[in-house]
Amino acid sequence: MTLSMRPVRPDDDAALLHEWVTQERARFWGMTDKSLEEVRDVYAYLDSLATHHAYLVHHDGVPIAIFQTYEPAHDPVGEVYAVREGDLGAHLFVAPGERVPGFTGRLAAFLVETLFADPAVHRVVCEPDVLNAASLRRVEQIGAELGPEVDLGWKRARLAFLPRPGQAS
Questions:
Q1: How far is CA 97 from CA 3, 62, 154, 158, in A?
Q2: Domain hosting residue 26, numbered range
Q3: What are the pLDDT digits (tens) for 102-118?
Q4: In this structure, is residue 168 part of a structural domain?
């Protein structure tokens, strides 16, 4: 299983992203009612920011997930907890499709390894929707410590913090 990722190209990837984020299973991403153009615009806006990045994750060359990173100090999440130097926020949406057992664990390990390859990253911050039990289980399975519930305005989230291996949270 070969995993790779590349930056989202809003114009080229809009149709695929729209197909994924408008499904009911993507409701936690808040774009189920967005048009193709609106989804493209969201990713074009993210692409214009130095603090937020969106990637397509590929498995053996086939796109299988959207992965987004952001600097919490430049995001509404940074208003609900004490941001530390070296914090990096992350979002993951795995596209629908058949998966072999253990796939999500391997994908999570790949993404964590990718994030911590940057020595400036000391802690990964996630904020899954409190109603997304599967996502909450996943962040705990990768070793993240669950933090408080917070109101982000568009969702009630549970903060989760994953320290760099070998460091305390």
A1: 16, 11, 27, 26
A2: 3-163
A3: 888 899 999 999 999 99
A4: no
